[in-house]
Amino acid sequence: xTRSPIRCHECDNQAYFVGRIPPTDVFAGRQRxxxxxxxxxxRCANCRLGFRWPRPEKSRLDAGYVDGDGFTWTRxxxxxxxWVIARNWLAARLRPSSKMLDVGCFDGGFLKPYLGVHxxxxxxxxxxxxxxxxRLGIELIGKDFSSIKGSFxxxxxxxxxxxxxxxxxxxxxxxxxxxxxxxxxxxxGNLDAWSFRFMGSRYWYCTIAEHIxxxxxxxxxxxxxxxxFDIARESFFAHESVAWAKRLExxxxxxxxxxxxxxxxxxxxxxxxxxxxxxxxxxxxxxPYWGSACDHFMVLLVKR
Length: 304
Prior knowledge:
alpha/beta; Rossmann fold; 7-stranded mixed beta sheet
């Protein structure tokens, strides 16, 4: 892979090469017969945005979402730490009959408790999941990020920013669609989490094919003055809560993968890890999962 100079597609400054991203055969929760194109992780030296390059065209990404598993992002609220935190934050902010927009609402799980009390709207590209959200009573206003228009008291985006080609513009559009005093809650992976820094481009979160942008608290602070918002709340958490034995297993697995990649490749070739290495030998270097690492964060942004 060539390492010719790459520029940040948001601020146009020089980006540096972090490492090659191992391929995968999964997109939007559905196993595919092909594997993802070869790509690498870069990070802008100025705004600190991390991004996959080259990345799939938007039309290809959208087609993958539409064809994705209809339940891949369906989880019980108790297993969504970001939802728990966000609802605590919103308890002090929501007024009666507030207007709420959940971008990437999937089947409406987050908005469900607010139905009948607040005006709940959503944006969702997956047709089956969107239909389930509509049946709950959520008004879908579009399928794409370009549909973020109007005037809302609260806009939420859980596990969305990493799918966005231009996250700065996405944040700006959300803030522009906020009513005076409104807020935007964004939850995503943290590129500066210690586990992410330790594993680099070979981190599990980075190898998810539909993840193309990677941010951090530093990135929000860099764009803060340009867009003019305040960070009212911030919280760090793990993608999921598991028993200590499972946490230890994930730590050990990733340490071994980092320290002895040849050993992990050998085990995968022998059938470990659930990857079809016989059909796709390149999947032998796919990293182990590390969902128990504290590698996610959430912010509450308020427009000035």
